[in-house]
Design brief:
The complex is a heterodimer. By secondary structure, chain A is an alpha+beta fold. Chain A is built from 17 helices and 20 strands. Chain B folds into 3 domains: 226 residues, Uridine Diphospho-n-acetylenolpyruvylglucosamine Reductase, domain 3 (2-Layer Sandwich); 99 residues, 2-Layer Sandwich (Alpha-Beta Plaits), CATH 3.30.70; 85 residues, Alpha-Beta Plaits. In chain B, strands 4, 5, 6, 7, 8 and 9 form a 6-stranded antiparallel beta sheet that branches. A 4-stranded antiparallel beta sheet of chain B has the order 11-12-10-13, with helices on both faces. Classes of the chains: A alpha+beta, B alpha+beta. At the A-B interface, strand 11, helix 8, helix 9, helix 11 and helix 17 of A face strand 8, helix 7, helix 8, helix 10 and strand 17 of B. Chain A: This is Glycolate oxidase subunit GlcD.
Chain lengths: 490, 415
């Protein structure tokens, strides 16, 4: 994007992405701001060493790097409040950060921004099994909640692939999903309350242990707002009783179309497995080479269908699913025979992005389409990539239509990188035209910010921005993200 | 705060102009006209939940009654799109025809609120009406995937979509759900639906005190049994269900739904774990349906021939019984519980006792109380929705202004 007033951060082989121009007055006050922040947080709360600052320059959208003005790591809600109140009065932009696993650049800073990292707020504050809730600080990792209550037979349902590292605060910012949301929903469906610090330092509580918060559903609005409305410091999440057993089964097909039609028929038959994951041939090969999960290599498409429940329940449900799969000419059916094997099957799937990264550079798309459009969109995705002379691997959540085409390219070849980006944009346009959306779970961030007009009219964007301004009228919170830089309110 | 008193639960008096646009374009025209004339509008669907919140100070009404019809329904995607004024009954019949249903089991509030009219799908979402299955299947807002609506600037906008996973931009869909027509008029709603279960069964445990019932329900929810309804009917209301056919004593209900084989297995799981706690009886599909419909529709306090105050209280599930016990020390009250104890329906014997109740809720760990029914004087004097702390109320007011800057829609309704 060419924009004389914007500031570009560059990564290897990628077109520059625009940020809001850094405020010179803020850059000039860096020492003063660092000194003020040091007064506001407990010891060690302001990161100074150049090497220690490095990780904060980017997130899992690693194509772009941008050193921040400063990094502050508060330890309490009160400290977060003090930092925000200061930044508000000093007119300093703030980018909140969890574990930095955003795939859309949501946590990438800008040159004049203070990164507010929640990593030191990592305590599980209360487990209340009778009310089935956990109250946690924002920096707690997703997986640690489930681990904490596993012995008592509970878990926290949303399970993004990065769940070992990603934090609940980041999950809330992105309304993260995962493989099992077909049955359990995404973050917003499992979130009961938050402590939210507004940009002026005001602390508000939304919801709690009760099932519906009073007043406007601001909790629903904050979830998925990508850190634009405030900083979440604590959350109350819903715990669910862990099913007696879970069993993933592999189904291999000779074509993606057959696999897609099988998914539609499973859903239409009134069966809702906990997960239906799809991989095409390139994805199978990549994941198998990495995880040795025993995926069949002689099929064009693979479904991982997971069912849950008591032994007899799983057996009954699987029998029905197998019958449907046979109608679609399934070639291979492989049930996991042990917990180890089940874990391996999931390891292959969950390491798909990492495994792909070992063989090539890639851009991961995240559009969602209505289920009936899956076969068409898959076919067109292949054609679009072929048209640019690029390979694509598809691995995604088929049960909910959330696609993840991985467009493979060589980042050292600027022309190829540009082609990959162009192909990605066409695929996202396709998703929107097919009745879907730009991003199902990774967020808009920097990555898809300039594509928002594919999906929204000017009036719709203006309305969203007006709601945003009700929380942060000065646009200090993560201001370079989500909304196109042009056409913003003055 | 002064509020007009209400003689009837209906928001729209006969003298009012009532607009019933037939298209989104007509809605836009009406809203722009209202904007030009600075004349606030009372928004309504079927009017069956008109008594929620306060009477609206408006000179004209805007109804979705002529915006009716199912626009798109693909059972294989488990998604339906309908115009907001589509009767709920029509939606449910279309779903049933394909072996599907709404996940969130919306109540019919007519009997309890003393209203008439036809509940609409838009009204259900505007009031975020969620029944017993809320504890398992989520609230109405969780099923709502996308909307078209007209804001207070007279702009027709869309938010969300027709897919289950969508994090593109701010989630205005959630914001509009449960906003009682104070932010805009939803003209079209797209929502997720679920397959109907093959089998429904209810386990009835008899004779438990409220606290013991809450403990039993919590224990049930901790088991891998996918309980889709957990309610407790104290002895005082038990006779109002199934025409008095429930066994003697209070009844604690656990509902199971799903494939027949699976329901049988889960019923065994629950029986094994909890059967020693109280006498246990199992009800089949027909009785289950009637029973849960009565729970859903607040049947014990509906059509009871009184205007005795009716509260809907939302607290942490285990806090319900303690709250009711504390309230009983100081006021005459009858109560029953849904949502594992977290949704408490309270009928006061005399006065609403708002301050007392809300104070006790705060002490019990937080939550909120909504006054659904009371005599007009009490309704005018008491905030129907739980008053919010000042910073939160100020934030909510700014959010309202961002959608409806001129205060055109349902002024006064949410207090």
């Amino acid at each position: 994007m060419s924009n004389a007033t914007s500031h570009a951060a560059e990564g290897p082989g990628c077109a520059p992405i625009a940020f809001l121009p850094p405020r010179p007055d803020v850059l000039a006050r860096r020492d003063e701001i660092m000194a003020a922040l040091t007064e506001l947080v407990s010891a060690g709360g302001v990161v100074r060493a150049p090497l220690a600052l490095k990780p904060f320059e980017t997130d899992a959208f690693v194509a772009y790097r941008q050193p921040p003005l400063a990094v502050v790591l508060p330890q309490t809600t009160a400290e977060v409040s003090a930092v925000l109140a200061y930044c508000h009065s000093a007119r300093v932009p703030v980018v909140a950060r969890g574990a930095g696993t955003s795939l859309s650049g949501g946590a990438i800073p800008q040159a004049d921004a203070v990164v507010l990292g929640l990593s030191r707020m990592n305590r599980i504050l209360e487990i209340d099994l009778e009310n089935r809730t956990a109250r946690v600080e924002a920096g707690v990792t997703n997986l640690s909640i489930s681990e904490k209550v596993a012995a008592q037979g509970f878990f926290y349902a949303p399970d993004p692939s990065s769940q070992l590292a990603c934090t609940i605060g980041g999950n809330i910012a992105m309304n993260s999903g995962g493989a099992h949301c077909l049955k359990y929903g995404v973050t917003t469906n499992n979130l009961l309350g938050v402590t939210l610090v507004l940009i002026d330092g005001t602390v508000v509580t939304l919801g709690g242990k009760h099932l519906d918060a009073g007043g406007y559903d601001l909790l629903g609005l904050v979830c998925g707002a990508e850190g634009q409305l405030g900083v979440v410091t604590e959350a109350v999440v819903r715990l669910i009783a862990r099913p007696e057993g879970a069993r993933p089964v592999l189904f291999g097909f000779d074509s993606s179309e057959e696999a897609g039609a099988c998914v539609a028929d499973i859903i239409a038959a009134g069966i809702i497995p906990v997960a239906i994951e799809f991989m095409d041939r390139p994805a199978i090969a990549i994941c198998e080479a990495f995880a040795k999960a025993g995926y069949p290599l002689d099929v064009a498409a693979l479904l991982i269908v997971e069912v849950e429940g008591a032994e007899a329940e799983m057996a009954a449900m699987l029998a029905e699913i197998v019958t449907i799969a046979r109608r679609h000419g399934v070639r291979t059916v492989r049930e996991s025979q042990s917990a180890t094997e089940a874990a391996l099957i999931w390891k292959g799937r969950k390491s798909a992005f990492g495994a792909t990264g070992r063989i090539a550079d890639y851009i991961c798309m995240d559009g969602t389409v209505p289920l009936s459009q899956l076969p068409y969109v898959l076919k067109r995705t292949g054609e679009i990539c072929a048209g640019f002379g690029l390979e694509v691997a598809n691995v995604f959540h088929a049960g909910d239509g959330n696609m993840h085409p991985l467009i493979l390219f060589n980042a050292n070849d600027p022309a190829e990188a540009a082609k990959a980006e162009a192909a990605g944009n066409e695929i996202l346009k396709l998703c929107v035209e097919a009745g879907g959306c730009l991003t199902g779970e990774h967020g808009v961030g920097l990555e898809k910010r300039d594509l928002m007009r594919f999906q929204y009219s000017e009036a719709e964007l203006a309305q969203q921005m007006a709601v945003r301004a009700a929380f942060d009228p000065l646009w200090l919170l993560n201001p370079s993200k989500v909304f196109p830089l042009e056409g913003r309110p003055a | 705060m002064t509020l007009p008193s209400m003689s009837s639960p209906s928001m729209i008096s006969p003298a009012m102009i009532l607009h019933a646009p037939r298209s989104e374009a007509e809605v836009v025209e009406i809203v722009r006209g209202a904007l030009a004339g600075a004349t606030p509008l009372a928004l309504q669907g079927g009017g069956t939940r008109a008594g929620f919140g306060h009477a609206v100070a408006a000179e004209a009404g805007l109804s979705t009654s002529a915006l009716s019809g199912i626009l798109r329904y693909t059972p294989g995607e488990m998604v339906m799109t309908a115009l907001a004024g589509t009767p709920l009954e029509e939606v449910e019949a279309a779903l049933a025809g394909q072996g599907q249903r709404l996940a969130f089991e919306p109540a019919d509030h007519r009997p309890a609120m003393g209203t008439q009219g036809v509940p609409t799908i838009g009204g259900v979402f505007a009031a975020n009406v969620s029944g017993p299955r809320r504890i398992a299947g989520g609230a109405a807002r969780d099923s709502l995937l996308g909307i078209r609506f007209v804001n207070g600037r007279g702009e027709a906008l869309s938010a969300g979509g027709r897919v289950m996973k969508n994090v593109t931009g701010l989630d205005l869909v959630k914001l509009m759900a449960g906003s009682y027509g104070t932010l805009g008029l939803m003209t079209e709603v797209t929502f997720r639906v679920l397959p109907q279960p093959e089998r429904v069964e209810t386990l009835v445990f008899s004779g438990l005190e409220d606290q013991a019932a809450a403990e039993l329900m919590a224990a049930a929810m901790a088991l891998p049994a996918d309980v889709s309804g957990a309610a407790h009917l104290p002895e005082s209301v038990r006779g109002r269900f199934l025409a008095g056919a429930l066994p003697e004593g209070a009844a604690t209900l656990l509902r199971l739904e799903g494939h027949a084989a699976s329901v049988a297995i889960r019923a065994e799981t629950l029986t094994r774990a909890l059967g020693a706690r109280a006498p246990l009886q199992r009800l089949g599909p027909e009785q289950s349906e009637s029973l849960w419909r009565a729970v859903r529709d607040i049947h014990p306090y509906a059509e009871d021939g009184t205007q005795r105050p009716l509260w809907r209280v939302s607290v942490a599930p285990m806090a319900g019984p303690g709250l009711v016990a504390a309230l009983r020390m100081e006021a005459g009250v009858d109560a029953f519980y849904d949502w594992q104890g977290g949704l408490v329906w309270l009928r006061m014997e005399a006065e609403p006792e708002a301050a007392l109740l809300r104070g006790l809720i705060a002490k019990a760990g937080g939550g909120h109380a909504t006054l659904l029914r009371a005599n007009p004087a009490a309704r005018a004097a008491i905030p129907a929705f739980e008053p919010q702390p000042a910073p939160l109320a100020a934030l909510a007011a700014r959010v309202k202004a961002s959608l409806d800057p001129h205060g055109l829609f349902n002024p006064g309704r949410m207090g």
